[in-house]
Amino acid sequence: MENVAIIKNLGLDDQEANIYLALLRLGGLKASTIAKEVGLKRTTIYPILQSMAQRGLVNVFYRKSERMYYAEKPTKVVAVMQKKLDLFENIIPVLGVMQKNTGGQIGLQFIETLPELKNFYLKILDEYKNKSYRVIGSATGWEGLDPKWFIQFRTDRGQNNIHTRLLLTEESKNINPKNKKLLREFKYLPEKYQFKSTIDIYDDKILIVSPQLSSLAVVVAVPAMVDIFKSVFDIIWEMLSEEMSNY
Known about the structure:
Blueprint: H1 2-8, H2 14-26, H3 31-38, H4 42-54, E1 58-63, E2 66-71, H5 74-90, H6 92-102, E3 107-111, H7 114-127, E4 132-137, H8 139-143, H9 147-159, E5 163-168, E6 184-188, E7 198-201, E8 206-209, E9 217-221, H10 223-239, E10 245-246
Helix pairs in contact: 1-2, 2-3, 3-4, 7-9
């Protein structure tokens, strides 16, 4: 399962990742055999294999008038992906000019699934390296979405020299880590204020994460609202006594 998740990061879906791993494991196979191996209908497997072949993930050979499919070597897949990345990097200056001409992104963005949310946070690791942001939330509610992943995210965030100030619910004390390497400064809200949502306050946007929303999370990129949330955070932070803070 872990291999499937990693391969999907290359832009493959579940079916494609399972097909690629099956071909690596078993060698050349007919389409009907592949379909049986990964639990797909024979009529479904052909367009998937065709798409994978066009993207350089699968090779097609003919043996006695039958098509045999082979997984491309992982090293060659990496080379193909790297070439695409190099081509994209070459046009970044042009794309940057285009983006400036269109102005900043303002409005709402809805995050429907947990993988989308994780992808958002992975981008934050790069975007906020050597920077800082604020958080108001529940450690239990946030971490509970996927404990292993979000605990690792805290570690990665600290390693990227991202400092965070956090206003946490009282019940967050039960699982809130005290490790200084995480670069977190936090205070606890009075016990009567209990909620499961979390609000991340960045320089240009706000992320609201809540299992109670119709969408898992919402990104609010409205400058006036960002300024208000920053000010509200700072007011609450200064009002809370030092007895409620930890470093």
